Amino acid sequence: QVQLVESGGGAVQTGESLTLSCSASGILFSFDVMGWFRQGPENTREMVASIASDGTTNYADSVRGRFTVSREDGTKKSLHLQMTSLKPDDTSVYFCNYKQRPNEFVSFREFWGRGTQVTVSE
Prior knowledge:
Elements lengths: L1 E6 L2 E4 L4 E9 L4 E9 L5 E8 L4 E3 L7 E6 L4 E7 L8 E10 L7 E4 L3 E6 L1
Parallel strand pairs: 2-11
Antiparallel strand pairs: 1-3, 3-8, 4-5, 4-9, 5-6, 7-8, 9-10, 9-11
């Protein structure tokens, strides 16, 4: 099992910055992808940014150039999302997502954090 704990959410004004963090603990494998999703309409979750164990990053078009995802690996793994030039449209609940597999021949198992609220006011 994997436990994910998010921190860093809060309320800011347009143009300000915020950094989210997620700590992953438990049974962690080498092949993984860590990412941030946010709540969308009708209870959907949209990918915001992700970073794989090989360092490959992926960003939603709406945040590219404003958000930066990074990670630290060790006994525990940490995921960070540096958010700059925040807009009211960035307001949402942000969820940490962790997908892992023991090797490339099996499917990923997926885990979610509880979410942290980010509110951006005008």
